Amino acid sequence: MRRISLTINGQNHSFVMSKDRVLLDLLREDLGLTGTKQACDRKGQCGACTVIVNQRAVHSCLTKVASLDGAQVITVEGMGTPENPHLIQEAYALSGAIQCGFCTPGMIMATKALLDGNTNPTVEEIKKALRHNLCRCTGYKKIVEAIQLAARFIRGEVTPDRVRPKSTDGLIGVSHPRPSALAKACGTAHFTADYKLEGALELAVFRSPVPHARITNIDTSYAEKMTGVAGVLKATDVKGTNVLKFGPPDRPVICGDKVYCIGDPVLALAAESKAQAEAALKTVRVDFEPLPVVESPEASLADGTVQIHPNLPNLCVDQPVIRGAAEEALTNSAAVVEARFTTQRVYMSPLEAEATIAYWEEEDEGEDALLVIVGRSINIHQHLGMLQEALGWENMKYVEAYTGGQFGIKLDIMSEGIAGAAAIHFKRPIRYVPSLAESMLMTSKRHPFDMKVRLGADAQGILTAYCNDMLVDKGAYRSADIFPRSLMTLSGSYNIPNLNARLRLAYTNNPFGSTARGAGQPQVSFALECAMDMLADKLGIDPFEFRLRNSLKPGQAKCTGWVVEEWPFPEVMKAIHPHYERALKEAAAHRTGRVRRGVGLGAGAHGVGRTGEGAAVAVELDPDGGITVYAAAADPGEGTDSMLAQISASVMNLPLKKVRLCTRETDLTTATGPAAGSRLTYMVGGALINALDQLKEAMRATGATNSEGLSAAGKPKRYIGSKKNEDAGPMDPKTGQGTSFVSDIHGVQMVELDVDTESGDVTVLKVTAAVDAGTVINPQNLTGQLEGGMDMGVGYALREEYAVGETYDWVTYKFPTIRDSFEMETLLVETRRSKGPLGATGVGEMCLVPTAPAVINAIKNATGAWICDLPATPDKIKAALAALKA
Ligand code: FES
Ligand code: FES
Fold first, then answer.
1. Could you say which ligand is closest to the alpha carbon of residue 407?
2. Residue-wise pLDDT tens digits, 116-146
3. What Å distances lie between residue 248 and 244, 268, 309, 316, 317, CA to CA?
4. 344 CB neighbour count, 10 Å cutoff
5. Is 338 a catalytic residue?
6. Which of 139, 603, 765, 805 could form a disulfide with 748 if both were Cys (CB 3.0 to 4.6 A apart)?
7. Dihedral of alpha carbons 235, 239, 244, 250, sign
8. Rounded distance between C-alpha atoms, residue 602 and residue 530, angstroms
């Protein structure tokens, strides 16, 4: 042990500590300074734990307290508070550089270290200073802008008051900082692992090392005798169905007799400390009897293959989409292209681990006690119901903590089931904070697709027919289905009169696929948009002109036969056209030599929400004339809180500070569906306006200006609004016809890149995105979504791939860093949506749909080589170039 004296945020402290204790633990566990985060397994890979020690930015996860005698430490809490923020914290909030906010404290500390030594850094110097800080949400553009703004504040060139939107600027179409921004910037926003949970047991979970096997024996006898161990939780200890039932009942909370994929939970060990639980876990012995492993969907559907789930066929879905006579139309086409496109399995990479805490509100109430689950769900009411059934406990509530990104994977329950079951079994509060490696192992992934396509056009370059035969690896569990979106968006932005497609989804023993930003559309868009360029090439038509010529028009039908009323794709194309002309001219000067420049386009129309769904929102007039919005509209970083506040303030003519949001607890909110499918603005915003209209009418009829006035007039102060999609109607099982999304977001992206033809390295120079998402409520939030999506889309196109067993941290998973970031430009077209709230719709997923094909089309444009198998790694590019020469 060592005695250490140091200063933390200006306060003197003395500690006696073991020589191995790291600063991160001292700050978070001993001092409760949870603004400092952890987003990797203490490997110096994420930067979320950055603090300042003696004027230098350091990783607190790697800094031993024993080395800090006499040091001066500053954490994000020492910078400022939401009421009195530091200029850097203000700059982050005002620049829209904060989405989920999990990276933000680390970013802010790295920024402080930079600006303390250099108040006018170049972009290169900013990128160098923040090269160890990861952000998954923003694409880094607004972070660079925030640092530049902070530098201007510090240099005294401008003040936050001059930058901050004023009350006279209006409420819609204005970038008011999101309500949660300063709490995230100052480290006071609590993420799940930040909760102090007195008397909690910590969990460590034994996860299967094999993909398909029977569990023949579990020996925990040694572990149970170890110091601090409270006991073991097995499948037989789970009181309910032990099934997390999203669709078919295929996914256990804890596996009982067999495991279905690597990483399946077999048991949990509970101990007084995490270290004790992990030490005990190492002594557990589980014996498996191997079963045949189904490694691919082809193998899954082959004759004689083992059935993975009893009572469920390996073929989960076999759905065609048939419109017109595609084969005949292809035969009669002037030009047809044929290709096979494959996509990879992707981990969606939120920075926060899959943490849950579970506790009893009153410990002594026995079977009636209220079990509280605090976690990272984006659909708390649905997940509450699933947990009640799976765990056999009725009196339960779910609280959504602040969430460090999600991008689709938080539509599934991950750590909540095990944590809740352990709380019931041990009758103790439970903390389950898995490592990054374990989080990667347990979470759902983006599905790999294998697509064989044919696309035809007539001599005038008008599309005639499209065929796409899709085989999709579902992995071990069914979970949320993305196949309807894949099928409903098959024709993209275009009018394709004849279509013949089939999608087969098959169980395998691979990691399970579920929703992932774009939910099945990025894969089909990759195939269609690359085929569009192939066909344009064959016809000798410019790819821009070919897309515009084939745009769907109001009155024409999408692939499902659904006739559209509005289709502003040509306007989006027009917006990007001058940029396209400029890019082609610039690229023309780089067509020879080792490094070649290319320009590529990708387009798409992303449907909002789910067909036939609804949303509900409650609003209540407050005593001071303000309002409170009650709806379980999750905000894992997209800006839902801004949308709810700005719409409410605008409709009610209130200042933003008089709009209060209650969105995170099941017992206080209406169920209003998931934060998925870009649906919250359109659906929940629509239900909000409906509720506000009812409240306004009651206020008008009574003359009341506050809740007391309404009560005195005999009127309720609370009103529930709803919105229902009118596009109900199932997809016809034989033809796939009959349904669609009621609102679409339209976009086109243009990628400019350089390809090193010797090394195969690709440098993305710029991505330009033109998007029409209807009325813009908060431009900064919208462009922030687009920029984050472009960054993620480029990662999908070039480097990201999850391989079980090989991918376990931020080095083995090729996460885009600020060093990889590129120039981005967003062009907003605003075509008011007739059924959208104030004319708006949502954009969170569209932003990544066109990116991968735009990258691949640009590589082809630069080199002549087609990469039809994502990601386009240097090796694949080199092989494709060698094949061209052969
Ligand atoms: S937790 Fe310290 S660098 Fe990731
Ligand atoms: S805002 Fe950076 S990780 Fe979410």
1. 2
2. 999 999 999 999 999 999 999 999 999 999 9
3. 9, 25, 10, 10, 12
4. 18
5. no
6. 603
7. positive
8. 8
